[in-house]
Design a protein that fits this description.
This protein is about 30% helix and about 25% strand. With about 325 residues, the protein is of the alpha/beta class. The protein folds into two domains: about 5-95 and about 175-325, P-loop containing nucleotide triphosphate hydrolases (Rossmann fold, 3-Layer(aba) Sandwich); about 110-175, no CATH class. The longest helix has 18 residues, at about 190-210. It starts with 6 loop residues before the first strand and ends in a 9-residue tail after the last strand. The structure holds adenosine-5'-diphosphate and magnesium ion. Magnesium ion binds near residues 50, 51 and 183.
Length: about 325
């Protein structure tokens, strides 16, 4: 792991547009580093703010949804949040890119695959005509799309979900970027196709030193793919640790509950999380720890005051009063 992170997120905070007077934070003081060649998993129940974190990093939050209110997104030493939109457009897709759960929503249904991948490659490399087509075929081949010379001319609906996701990855890798954000890219794929896609990502990473932020529901994927894991709850990262350490010594009661709720790593995604109770509404967060109403260990201080971030080991921290001596 390099000493300087390729991506450094500091205090990233995103407000939802809200009719109410009080600010509603969907992303609350999110802070982490991402190093070249590593994969950081981002886990948490649905609605915890994983996708809005990704979109905030890329400055892709629609104005109708909300806005980034504070923080820094340092990519290769530049603060993306401070860039004029024009400069941001030169970075987005090129140095930092995103692949989504369902590429059907990001691919244009009426354009051939080759034209869409070609558009991305053409943006970053001065190629046209035959040389561009050759580069597109190479990009499809690099994502292990069989018969790439024929596939360039098909439309998205003529491909399987797994192949479409590889096209999404070919577009994401066109830069090629230093950082790839993958927001549940394999959730819609069946287990075999999913495993093939993850192997592909790992191989690409090994060859390019790509840093990956990988959002997933699935602790099986975390175990096989990630170096470190960040656990999100109600807009905050409540625990961050190297992957083996998180599995062996979870320090936040929420992480423990998540891990306990995994019946079997092969199990159905929908059944993975089954913790009692529900995440709190973001516009009505508890006064103290957001997890306190569901936490079996919660005491008075947890209900009254926000917990501090406590370092519990090398590269391991969690936000919990139980980690503070002589409190609660
Ligand atoms: N387009 C949107 N409009 C309004 N609220 C949204 C929108 N997208 C997400 N939110 C809210 O922001 C919070 C975080 O959502 P999201 O980042 O999508 O969670 P996750 O990806 O972890 O499932 C949720 O409470 C959700 O209701
Ligand atoms: Mg999401």
């Amino acid at each position: 792991m390099a000493a300087v992170p390729v991506l450094r997120i500091e205090g990233l905070t995103t407000e939802l547009r809200s009719s109410k007077a009080a600010r509603v934070l969907a992303v609350d003081d999110v802070t982490f580093d991402l190093y070249a060649g590593e994969t950081l998993g981002l886990v948490g129940e649905s609605g915890s703010g994983k996708s809005l974190t990704c979109l905030s990093i890329l400055r892709l939050i629609p104005a109708t949804v909300g806005k980034v209110a504070a923080g820094h997104v340092m990519l290769e030493g530049k603060d993306l949040l401070a860039l004029p939109e024009e400069d941001m457009r030169a970075v987005r897709g090129r140095r930092i890119s995103i692949i989504l759960q369902d590429p059907m929503t990001s691919l244009n249904p009426v354009l051939r695959i080759g034209d869409q991948v070609g558009e991305a490659i053409g943006l970053y490399r001065a190629l046209k005509g035959k040389p561009l087509r050759t580069a597109v075929i190479e990009a499809l081949r690099a994502m292990r799309i069989p018969a790439p010379a024929e596939r360039v001319d098909v439309y998205p609906h003529q491909m399987s979900g797994g192949m479409r996701q590889r096209v999404g990855a070919a577009i994401g890798m066109a830069g090629p970027p230093a950082v790839l954000i993958a927001d549940e890219p394999t959730t819609a794929l069946d287990a075999t196709v999913q495993a093939q896609f993850l192997t592909l990502l790992k191989d690409v990473q090994r060859q390019t030193g790509l840093a990956i932020l990988f959002v997933t529901h699935d602790f099986g994927i975390v175990a096989s793919l990630c170096d470190r894991v960040a656990v999100m709850y109600a807009g905050r990262i409540v625990e961050l640790a190297p992957v083996a350490e998180l599995f062996e010594r979870p320090r936040h009661p929420y992480t423990e509950a998540l891990l306990r709720s995994v019946p079997d790593l092969e199990a159905d995604v929908e059944r993975l999380y089954s913790i009692d109770g529900h995440p709190p509404a973001l516009d009505a967060l508890p006064k103290g720890c957001s997890f306190a109403p569901r936490c079996p260990l919660a005491s008075e201080v947890c209900r009254e005051r926000k917990p501090p971030r406590v370092e519990t080991g090398a590269g391991h921290w969690a936000e919990c009063w139980k980690l503070v001596e002589n409190v609660g």
